[in-house]
Amino acid sequence: MFRALRHRNFQLFFGGQLISLIGTWMQTLAQGWLVYRLTHSAALLGTVGFAGQIPVLFFGPLAGIIADRHRRHRIVIATQAAMMIQAILMAILTLTRVITFSEIFVLALCLGVCTGFDIPARQSFLVEMVGEEDLMNAIALNSSIFNSARIVGPAVAGVLVAALGEGMCFLINGLSFIAVIAGLLMMRVNTPPVEHRGAGKWEQFREGLNYTRKNVAIRALLLLLGMVSLLGMAYMVLMPIFADKVLHSGALGLGWLMTAAGFGALLAALSLARRKNVLGLDRVVARAAAGFGVSLVLFGLSKSLWLSLVLLVPAGFCLMVQMAATNTLVQSIVTHAMRGRVMGLYTMMFLGIAPFGSLMAGFLAQRYGAPFAVISGGLACIVSASVFGYQLRHLKIDSQFALSSPETPSDAI
User: CB of 347 within 8 A of CB of 53?
Assistant: First the structure.
């Protein structure tokens, strides 16, 4: 389960990320609660979610090109440093009590730009740390620390927000980046960037787009990911409304709700870490997307805090299985020369489309209520998963996932 940790560079990355991501999840909860406390508006919650993710749509593909042309190690150091500065600015403005919705919106936009450049470089950098043979395990372990932090961060943030306010969460997040930057600086990385003789950025972008369009397996996986991101992931943006208006549990309840989803996602990441190859993982993706939709529908119908906590565990599990399994399958198929650009498109479909879902869900919640918005998204995810399952059966795209390794049952998770 932990074989990728035999690589020194991944050990440094793993330790730094574990600390830093706790702070990241603390900031996520605190920012949502701060917006809601200042505005009491579902639409503005969706607007901030939109601002934090829309830059990925525009910068993700460009970031993928840059990740193929330059050293990914240095790009990740730069993006992590920029994220640290953003968190410290949020802390200063909040602790001095001068922050308004406008400042939150602008800083969320800045963080989105950093994220747009960070994710393609960081995801394609994994293979340089562990090699092809341990890539699947590294992706799963990376997801596991992301979701371990997702359990700890919101729970701690819920207590801190209730006791000391949101500013302390932003400050802790800013300081937590020291760990990951230190780990990155201690690495020994010698992998050169891919050479592109005479090719301009626009030409490289078209190469990556055409490569993805012609590969039916990658195309189908990214389209499903984009639909789930657009229609289902916005439930997290609306979580402060569920905590306050639907479940009447306040900031502490918000922390527990996000922790429950994180616990399910951690179980999913650890399950994926046990797998030895990708055979059958395509069918798991279809089941996970459908399971995520069903969980959202049931969560939207719940009026009980404890029942909602229980339902968010499978929601987090299924979403993480789909996200990490899609990442693994795409990186298993893509060539090294195209890795950065395809991961840029992956980032665009996963996070770049999500802001439109956040905006749409925010206005739906404002008009019809948060439960209606979440239930509608869940039903749409079920339909999208059914279409992908049809493609698997009738277009035989799963034949492109075949590897030389022994077959692993598709129900291993």
Answer: no
